[in-house]
Amino acid sequence: MSVLGAVSQLLAIVAALLLAPLLTGWVNQWRAKMQNKSAPALLQPYRVLHKLFNKESVVAEHASPLFRMAPYIVFGCMALASAIIPTLSTDLPLSSAADAIALVGLFALARVFISLAAMDVGTAFGTLGARREMLIGFLAEPALLMVLFCASLISRSTSLTTIVETLAHRELAIYPSLLVAGVAFTMVSLAENARVPVDNPETHLELTMIHEALILEYSGRHLALLEWAASLKLFAYSCVGLALFFPWGVAEADAPMALVLALPVLIVKLAIGGIALAFVETVSAKMRIFRVPEFLATAFLLAVIGLLVNILLGV
């Protein structure tokens, strides 16, 4: 492992931990502006995390150790997922030990633990949220895998760094397979991050909430870790989308100057993506939970079509 590789890996982890709440605040601010509402402060997620970390955690009397361990496991999975995605550089020591399939596995592992923890206390809301979360995961993970496989066919590898290096060196053009896969990825990303039209992160209504139902029994530092993990998940999905469809600006191995420029380029791309996400949420209406399977099935079919287009046409 080279010194530059270790620095790149450390910067990637630090950038994810610091920028994830900022991205959430940026999206919330623009969403409020587009809806003609009073926008929250950009740094509001940091203030919420600081307040929660300084509060005492209240745990149910009959909660098992799983309930206490789940926030740390979920946060660790999201931090590790952000670490193996080439956000700043392709020279990542951890990338050799994980590929696109392992990335989906980390998301699935976090989902299983947060769902089990939600059912552990035995409340109606927790069980309801866990069922809905597993339903969404059951449909979203195959679609995400198909999107990643579509990109891997171009690079002939499931390694995320290899995919980014290959796509970054291709000529600037619209590739039909990636275009269709990009639409599918956007739909999966909205569902996985509990955004409109699948879920509304600002509501606590029984008939609509999914993510909020999972964490309703948590408080203090446990709730802070889960909220931070949710921001990391949004950051990870955003970076996966940028790596697959807008890979330019990511530094390569043995390029220290490119690594210096990679951070501002990443911030600009995340800022544009955050505005686009806020716009999509503003113009979309919350769909019924029974329509979500159709929504994600459409994403899966689009990803498969992108895969077939790549196989048949090679573009």
Topology:
Layout: H1 3-34, H2 44-53, H3 65-84, H4 100-120, H5 124-155, H6 160-168, H7 176-192, H8 211-214, H9 220-245, H10 256-283, H11 292-313
Helix pairs in contact: 1-3, 1-9, 1-10, 2-9, 3-4, 3-9, 4-5, 5-6, 5-7, 5-11, 7-9, 7-11
Which key features would you list for this structure?
mainly alpha, 315 residues, globular, 11 helices
SSE topology string:
HHHHHHHHHHH
The helicity comes to over 70%
Spatial extent as radius of gyration: 19 Å
pLDDT averaged residue by residue: 90
Number of helices: 11
Write up what this structure looks like.
Helix content is 70%, strand content 0%. It has helices at residues 3-34, 44-53, 65-84, 100-120, 124-155, 160-168, 176-192, 211-214, 220-245, 256-283, 292-313. Helix 1 (3-34) runs parallel beside helix 10 and helix 5 (124-155) packs across helix 6. The longest helix is centred in the first third of the chain and has 32 residues, at 3-34.
In brief:
The chain is mostly helical and 315 residues long.
